[in-house]
Amino acid sequence: MDTVALDAALQDVIGRHESLRTVFPTQEGEPYQRILEPADLDWRLEVERVGASDVDAAVARATQHAFDLSVEVPVRAWLFDSGADEGVLVLVVHHIAGDGWSMGPLSRDLSAAYAARIRGVAPAWEPLPVQYADYTLWQRELLGDEGDPESLLAAQIGYWRQALAGMSDELALPHDRPRPQVASHRGFSVPLQVPAEVHQRLVDLARVEGVTPFMVLHGAVAVLLSRVGAGDDVPIGSAIAGRTDGAVDDLVGCFVNTLVIRTDLSGDPEFRQVLSRVRETTLSGLAHQDVPFERLVEELAPARSRARHPLFQVVLTMLNPASTTQTGVDVLDLTGVEAQAVFAGKPAAKFDLDVLVGEVFDGEGRPAGLRGSVTVAADLFDADAAERFAGWLGRVLDVVTRSAEVRVHAVDVLGETERTSVVSAWNDTSAAVPDESVTALFERRVAASPDAVAVVADGVELTYRELDAAANRLGHYLRQQGVGAESVVGLCLPRGVEMITGILGVWKAGAAYLPVDATLPVDRIAFMAADSKATMLLGTEDVIGDLPAGRVRLVAIDSPLVEMMINASPDTPVGVTPNAGNLAYVIYTSGSTGTPKGVAVTHGSLTNYVSSVSDRLEWTGQDARYALLQAQVTDLGNTVVFISLATGGQLHILDERAVVDPAAVSRYLAEHRIDYVKAVPSHLAALSSGSDVAGVLPARSLVLGGEAAPIAWLRELVAAADQNGRKVFNHYGPTETTIGVATTQLTADAVEGGVVPVGSPIGNTRLYVLDDGLRPVPVGVPGELYVAGAGVARGYVRQAGLTGARFVACPFGSGERMYRTGDRAKWTAGGNVVFLGRADEQVKIRGFRIEPGEIETVLQTHPAVAQAVVVAREDSTGDRRLVAYVVPDEPEDADGELPTSLRKYAAQRLPDYMVPAAVVVLLELPLTPNGKLDRKALPAPDAAVAAGPRREPANRTEELLCGAFAQVLGLDSVGVDDNFFDLGGHSLLAVRLTSRIRSALGVEVEVRELFDAPTVAELAGALPTTKSERPALRPMRRDS
């Protein structure tokens, strides 16, 4: 290689193409083009001698060069000489000056210039017909003025505004971790290889359907994305050459534009129909391709974020067949030098998913396969995700090219190995379970250790012998009252010994218990008693008078007569042995229809749970100490209660005042040497707020259940547990699946990535993550979680229709049922399930499952309310709370007293945890363009209440910033709480704003800081305290 000739040839090319010798200085914050004369260039080829083992590192360093375009031309070149007549030429061109097409003329011109310089002469080129600056002026003239409604620019922007209306800001993809606040643009890439057979079928399909191979690829990618969770509205970005005039074909410059091709997959179309839709959308987009993508973003003003690309996050690029090699770039033809292109990998990931595809043909022009690459953003995906996407795309192409009649839902992306994992291998949970009820397991502990302490409550200790005797007496009494198998007995008893005795006594009588909270509205208690067909309702004298009188017999167990009858009953075993299929308890949860629904759980399911979970949690051993923090009217605390009683543990029941006192809980756990606790995350977080979370940890292990926990708090909790030698487990399970069906230990590694698993299935239980057609979805892909096996409850009491809808036939077993949880979930590569939220509107607040529809139904019965919507929102502290939005029946009803009166109205009819924390009165509910409720447009309650005059600047800094915001945005004024981007700001205006701020306040602000602090108030608090050292811009004119 003649380095002198190569240096001269590169300078010849830079001189030939003005775009390669253009810099972009600024004046008063406005960038402008300045084309340098070749004679003014201070540019040279950099030649470095590097060892063969250091070449890759040198290439990586060169490709990551950051240009200062205000003073530096947008092209750099390095020749890394590794000896033995071998070297690597790295040519880096900033995208502002070149695109993929430009690499062709650049390579040809460089080859011609080198051939000339090697002969000692300058290259004899035909002059270029135009330069890039000519193109920019032509494009401006072509598009016309934005203020002219008849201009091409206005017409095309109008088209795109309509074509992209209502599109989601972000495409749902099967991410491995949450999106960070700022994208790092790191990526993982793998090769994409599609065999010649599939390529041939693709070409044939394109010909038959009257589409291009690109359209077939686009349709396949859209179908793939839909099948892995993207829905039926799939926007994909695609680069187009943008060289609509032949005069620019041989020009180096950035002509490439990006089209957003939005694919409609609604209605489960056949792939042939998908191609028709893609063809129509693509051709329409190409007919409106003149608007630069950056300008389109300015005009459409989507929600901006430094974490993702605007308008689309998936891009599909198809290479020109002539340049499709393993590298996708043109090879230099240098005289006397053997050259080949080297693929250095994609240096960055601008998108969540980037698919690059090119067609390869054999010597006779026949399809020889597709070659390319798949790149995923490392911020969101693990390295193996790129391999998964490549494999999925290959399978989709194989399916759709075999039969264009296949419908979207029938395109299966699962491979056989993966299918085996998610259907059977990870559900191989067979385990031996005692053929006994929990009552029998308890009685075994009574026989083994009668004098061991069973329950501690209110300072009173009860041994296993004493607890068993009390339960036997109650069991005999209930039998005398006609209670037997399948009977339901309501228990409205104080937390503590009375409730535990009540549960065991009901079971010994062969019946099932119904837990009742005395603080519930009377009408709700009456409904539960009637709906469950309770035989009687046991309470105490202080609450019996407040309970609903009616068909259900009310019994005060502490009344003199009843107490005498119970005490006179024998304390010997009752002698009733329930079958596994007999009812153990009925527990009510919120119902979407406006009334609660009762879940019927059997003894067999409960025994399976206790047996399996005690082993998984390592909650075993006689005399182990358990603390119960929950009220016994929910099933959350049943893990602690029943495992303790069945394994010979010591159950400590804290009173309702102590469980909300951080100091009391911490002191109790320490003084009583508690080994095991189960808690709702929000409860535990409240107990540990303002103090060390280690203070509320038991001696051995903690189980979290009832709701998802904030990841930052989880990290703190797990770190504290690790430091103190304790374990933390996650636990998951709807009431319909007998307390819980999945669990796993949480480690520092498990929570570090931000994706927290709920675990793998417990014994004799199977978990399936399925799509809408009950087909298993691949690893990492969201679906709905279904539960099958021993953990599934009997169904809903007296609601056959609802039971049939939620407890459905399992397609993977021998005629058994599975429960449709309504929870969205996904599998991890390690066989754990991750909870992703609800598929419907159901929410959880402080561990309580709530159907907003039930609250809405109650609110709509108020005479002043015409419409009501209830949602769960996070407040400024991260806590979730219920917010009701109501439209009054008459405008005059919208007074300041309505929110207060509605909360009181709801409190009389709903449990306290279902009463909205805030009520916002609106004149109308916001709707989307297609008439559905626009939940995103519902105002935050505080903002809605505080809506009023704009807040003015509080100091000189805020005043100057308000002026700068207004000046750049072209507004009369801006308030300190107004969002720059909500007012029409974008990245280019942000650059101007930083310049204005520098001039006005003398401080340096980077554009990314505006994304993090987009209001005046936020930015004022984030401004640096030191003055800028950058000199002010001054006029610098050349002499004419």
UniProtKB/TrEMBL annotation:
Keywords: Phosphopantetheine, Phosphoprotein. The keyword Ligase does not apply. GO terms for biological process: amino acid activation for nonribosomal peptide biosynthetic process; lipid biosynthetic process; secondary metabolite biosynthetic process. GO terms for molecular function: catalytic activity; phosphopantetheine binding. Pfam families: AMP-binding, AMP-binding_C, Condensation, PP-binding. Belongs to the ATP-dependent AMP-binding enzyme family. This is Carrier domain-containing protein.
